Amino acid sequence: MLEGKKIILGISGSIAAYKSAALARLFVKAGAEVKVIMTSSSQDFITPITMATLSRNPVLIDFVKGNSGEWNNHVELGLLADIMIIAPASANTLAKMAHGICDNLLLATYLSARCPVFVAPAMDLDMFAHPATQNNLKLLSSFGNTIFEPNAGELASGLEGKGRMVEPEEILEFISNHFSDQQILKGKKVLITAGPTYEHIDPVRFVGNHSTGKMGFAIAEVFASKGAQVILVTGPSNQKAKHGNITRIDVTSAAEMYDATLKHFPKTNIAVMSAAVADYTPEKVSISKIKKSGDELQLKLKKTRDILKELGKIKTKKQILVGFALETDNEEANAIKKLNEKNLDFIVLNSLKNKGAGFGFDTNQIQVIHKGGEKVNYGLKPKHEVAKDIVDQIIKTLHA
Ligand code: CTP
């Protein structure tokens, strides 16, 4: 089930390092190619010989191989891996990962890795519960790393509590699911809009909004990580599309977004319109800069075309269409109105009344309202977690 997958297994200094031996064996038995990187303190708990034998590869510890002058290229390692897992991750290694400290090969590889990273903490209960550790874990999670919550039980100190590294079998199951999940939307074509639109007034000014594009880009990444081919039509945004399955199309105005989106919609299986499209645009765009004159300037705006509404009109029964509603008042009623008027499968409601939700924040709090009336409420979460929830709802709708 892990046939041909390249896994980097990082081991830091914790008594739980004995479990890494079983983990390496399970990965190898499942067909993976395993490269182990050990910190120097992990060698107090398990020997490189054990890990090299079980992983069937030499263990990497230092930047330089002996006195040969040949070095272990952490950038190459980080680029080649399909996943990296740090198990056990000690409090010290977690802290360094969270803050970009790079004083060993394991940390340099972590910082260079472009692949998904999984972290299995192991430590004593008070170290785990300490706000410093908890904050570090939150940081790692905000980077998109997956944390395996430790189990509760008897610890090496003799104390009872949370801090035991998850069992190798649990990790194997999770990682196997991760790889099968990568194929779950293979063959699906997804169209996403993201970011703001800028409506030009003259060559130097525009009417715009505070959308950053974070939500739309996060949704694109989740779809791509599940094997879908994504077309991301984005207004001006500093966000970067990382996954190779994402084709980014940059537009500026609502009219350009309309054209690009309508062009790609017929070949799309799933469309998610998360852009904050301007509802009005200047009737006339001045070719030269408007000079200051008089106490007032009247700008006449005309309505833009509603992209989502247009898609709702032409959508076939096989296509899934999802929209967003950003509301300040009568949130649910307004969202349901948009859901019906725009012929959506479901709508994602953000209320600006919720603290930490909406433009510019790294977090969001949503409610999903399906056309059949089902409502799903979520708590405040990082946007990449919210993106996973939205994609899960779409997968559910696909299979309904
Ligand atoms: N939308 C769109 N094209 C537009 C305006 C909005 O595709 N010209 C989409 C957004 O991407 C979002 C949904 O419509 O998915 C709802 O956007 P929102 O601004 O909340 O609603 P509007 O329909 O514009 O209504 P209002 O601004 O009056 O709330």
Features:
alpha/beta; elongated; Rossmann fold; 400 residues; 2 domains
What does this structure look like?
With 400 residues, this protein is an alpha/beta fold. It folds into two domains: 6-155 and 162-181, Flavin prenyltransferase-like (Rossmann fold); 189-286 and 294-398, 3-Layer(aba) Sandwich (Rossmann fold), CATH 3.40.50. The chain is built from 13 helices and 21 strands. The strands form six sheets. The chain has an eight-stranded mixed beta sheet with strand order 12-11-8-13-16-17-19-20, sandwiched between helices. α1 runs parallel beside α2, α1 (17-29) packs across α8 (168-181) and α3 (74-80) packs across α5. The relative contact order is 0.09. The model has no long low-confidence stretch (mean pLDDT 94). Cytidine-5'-triphosphate binds next to α11 and β16.
Q: Give the biggest sheet.
A: 8 strands, mixed
Strand order of the largest sheet: 12-11-8-13-16-17-19-20
Question: Which geometry do the CA atoms define?
Answer: elongated
Tell me the strand percentage band. 15-25%
Distinct compounds present: cytidine-5'-triphosphate
Which structural class is indicated by helix and strand composition? Answer: alpha/beta
How far apart the termini lie comes to: 27 Å
- The CATH topology label of the largest domain is Rossmann fold
What's the alpha carbon Rg, rounded to whole Å? 25 Å
